[in-house]
């Protein structure tokens, strides 16, 4: 037992012998069915985690699977905007109903519940964690084959709540080239290992810039380190997404469902075969 033990195993990941072996998993709403849950994580914000969550969801939906996104990034929700959703979610006597995107991806995000999407969420950690849990327990996730959870960045309280409360089948780690040379990615990897959650793959976003006229790749942040980091952590599936104005324009215009590009195809196939 740690010297700082608070006797509250729900907020601690230490694997000590006196650990309460209680299962913290939350039950789904009786009207829901979710086959696979994939967490999309990053060491810090702004590296493209929501972009990758959106793109992977679009790819799975294109493959014919019923796909959903649980936006657990409560303080920085960007999923509704990327999909151009302006309507609000509503509830019936069974629970909260997610809002479908144009191609039918079911989405739940705090921005679909706030009166004004620019309202800040100034809540304490446990309240944010409780909201994420409710997104799992109180939303009617009907017949979902693949649910992507856009996790809050970092390795703090809310990611811990998600890992403990939801049956996460695997995670995808999103990084930027700069992050790869720091220890931030390794922290995310180690957290997944600590929680016994398989790492499906790692995505280096904004990896390079490809010139429109000569197609030469420019590695703006220097040569990529993704292979080394993946090898050091036993991760066999890696993907690199270029910095591409078409991608940022698509999310800004709410048209991410129209994106085209092969970068995440291998990862999507691996998720399909989970
Ligand atoms: P995070 O979820 O990690 O905070 P986002 O997915 O919201 O990051 O991305 C941050 C910003 O960077 C967004 O405006 C997004 O459109 C842009 N962006 C992300 N990836 C790319 C990319 N590969 N090319 C161009 N813009 C990108």
Map the helices and strands.
Elements: E1 34-42, H1 49-62, E2 67-71, H2 79-82, E3 90-92, E4 95-97, E5 99-100, E6 106-108, H3 125-137, E7 144-150, H4 157-165, E8 170-175, H5 177-180, H6 184-194, E9 199-204, E10 209-210, E11 217-218, H7 226-232, E12 238-240, H8 245-252, H9 265-272
Parallel strand pairs: 1-7, 1-8, 2-6, 2-7, 8-9, 9-12
Antiparallel strand pairs: 3-4, 5-6, 10-11
Helix pairs in contact: 3-4
Bound molecules: adenosine-5'-diphosphate.
List keywords for this structure.
single chain; 274 residues; alpha/beta; Rossmann fold; 8-stranded mixed β-sheet; 19% strand; binds adenosine-5'-diphosphate
Strand order of the largest sheet: 5-6-2-7-1-8-9-12
**SSE ordering:** EHEHEEEEHEHEHHEEEHEHH
| SS field, number of helical segments | 9
Helix-and-strand structural type: alpha/beta
Separation, N- and C-terminal Cα atoms = 36 Å
Helix content: 25-40%
What would the CATH topology be? Rossmann fold
**Total strands:** 12
Main sheet characteristics: 8 strands, mixed
- How many distinct folded domains? 1
Supply the CATH superfamily name.
P-loop containing nucleotide triphosphate hydrolases
Q: What is the CATH class name?
A: Alpha Beta
Q: What is the 3D form?
A: globular
Radius of gyration: 19 Å
The proportion of strand residues reads: 15-25%
Cofactors, ions, other ligands: adenosine-5'-diphosphate
The overall pLDDT average reads: 90
CATH architecture: 3-Layer(aba) Sandwich
Residue windows where pLDDT falls under 50 for at least 5 positions? none
């Amino acid at each position: 037992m740690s010297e700082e033990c608070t006797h509250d195993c729900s907020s601690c990941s230490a694997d000590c012998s006196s650990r309460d072996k209680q299962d913290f998993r939350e039950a789904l709403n009786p009207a829901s069915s979710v086959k696979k849950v994939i967490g999309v994580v990053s060491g810090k914000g702004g590296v493209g985690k929501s972009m990758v969550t959106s793109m992977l969801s679009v790819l799975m939906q294109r493959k014919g699977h019923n796909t959903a996104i649980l936006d657990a990034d409560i303080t920085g929700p960007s999923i509704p905007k990327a999909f151009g959703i302006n309507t609000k979610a509503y509830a019936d006597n069974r629970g909260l109903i997610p809002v479908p995107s144009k191609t039918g991806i079911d989405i739940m995000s705090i921005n679909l519940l706030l009166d004004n999407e620019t309202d800040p969420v100034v809540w304490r950690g446990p309240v944010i964690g409780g909201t994420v849990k409710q997104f799992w327990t109180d939303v009617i996730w009907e017949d979902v084959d693949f649910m992507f959870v856009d996790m809050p960045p970092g390795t703090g309280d809310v990611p811990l709540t998600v890992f403990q409360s939801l049956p996460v089948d695997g995670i995808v780690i999103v990084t930027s080239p700069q992050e790869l040379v720091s220890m931030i990615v390794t922290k995310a990897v180690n957290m997944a290992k600590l929680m016994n959650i398989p790492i499906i793959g790692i995505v280096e976003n904004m990896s390079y810039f490809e010139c429109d006229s000569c197609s030469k790749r420019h590695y703006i942040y220097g040569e990529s380190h993704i292979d080394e980091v993946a090898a050091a952590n036993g991760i066999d599936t890696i993907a690199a997404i270029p910095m591409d104005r078409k991608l940022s324009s698509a999310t800004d215009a709410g048209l991410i469902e129209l994106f085209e590009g092969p970068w995440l195809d291998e990862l999507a196939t691996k998720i399909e075969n989970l």
